[in-house]
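Can anyone check this?
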Amino acid sequence: MKYEILHRTRYAYDTPMRDSFNDVRLEPLSTIEQTVESFSLRVLPGVPVNRYTDFYGNWIHHFEIPDDHTYLLIESRARVKTHPIVPPAAEARPCPLREISRQPEMKPYREFLQGSRYVEIEVEPWHLALDATAGQTDTWQAALAIMDFVHDFLKYEPGTTRVQNHVCDVMKERRGVRQDYAHLMICLCRSLKIPARFVSGYLATETADATHAWVEVFIPRYGWQALDPVYNCQPEGTYVKIGHGRDYADVPPVTAGYHGGIRRTMEEEITIRPVE
């Protein structure tokens, strides 16, 4: 499949801002699952934009606005072609769960076993992970069981939480949005020594009022595999990946700092159109 994606974000400030500096993470990655054919970023007020990659290989566009301004428009356009993939079969058993921490392939991904800003490895999630994987002895089967458990454990309620919600709060409230599902699944996987990372992107079949979020788990012999606990499925050609990190804090669409008033409003518009 091929998609054209328009992502427009507009901020309006109650008083003029100045010395604004911004990092934008909206350019999708080219991977074996997708090819980015084109990408453009427009910023108003118009200023120079620098492009670089972060520690995880995600694209970041940085710009600064030194002069007073009462609004900020960030508009990205991307054309992305997704490719068919062959994920591990649902019944595959590539690595015993009790042996995963001893696999030599694991060494580069130790940081995806640690706690992070919104994900903390504690006793309670470890117990949940054991419950979720009762009877499972294989790493891939355990990951699938955790995805299924998180899908049923949480109730999807748009607007009920903020993207800054810590996974401990999510476990208590048992409800949330896309990021909450991803954070809880990451937490349970890491509790069992399965490397897991947060993925930000788009889902073409969804009403595109915001970016989507899912999880990638590292499975020996197969590498990183995508799983979506919101829909309890293995992502395929309708998913477009922007980037990945330890949790949401590593891949927010926009981060900003500025001097001036503290009140602002934000309007966001995302349009995803399939093309021939």
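Reply from J.R.: I decoded it. DSSP finds four helices and 13 strands in the chain.
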